[in-house]
Amino acid sequence: MPRLQHKIALITGGAARIGFETARLFPDEGASVVLVDLDNETLGRAGTDLKGHALTIAADVSSSDDTQRYVRETVDRFGRIDVYFTNAGIEGKVAPLVDQTVADFDRVMAVNVRGAFLASDEAAFITGAQYPVDGGMAAG
What we know:
Layout (H helix, E strand, L loop, with lengths): L7 E5 L4 H9 L6 E6 L2 H10 L4 E5 L5 H15 L4 E4 L15 H26 L13
Parallel strand pairs: 1-2, 1-4, 2-3
Helix pairs in contact: 3-4
């Protein structure tokens, strides 16, 4: 039996690189896949490449409203989320520190940190998960 049989996997940053390569593996293991990405064009290609094995949702992971929307769409369609890969991230401007701006820094933090926080927070709310003292996540 495949390891992810009948599981629902949501992957942010799922349209390219690590997220997409992960998404390519999940259907072979029995999972239904939801790809979330900001780049609608790349997201469309990823959905096509997965030959109908993925629901694609365009969203900005740093937006609380978008995060609530993509989680709600996933739960509305599949009833739950079993695997939540908060993979979305950006490198930001590659330049010496003196050439960086606060806006550059804020954008990286918004996607890489706030996006992961919003995803975890919304998943905990939807699933009723609780965070034990050791930092692990257990369904409540």
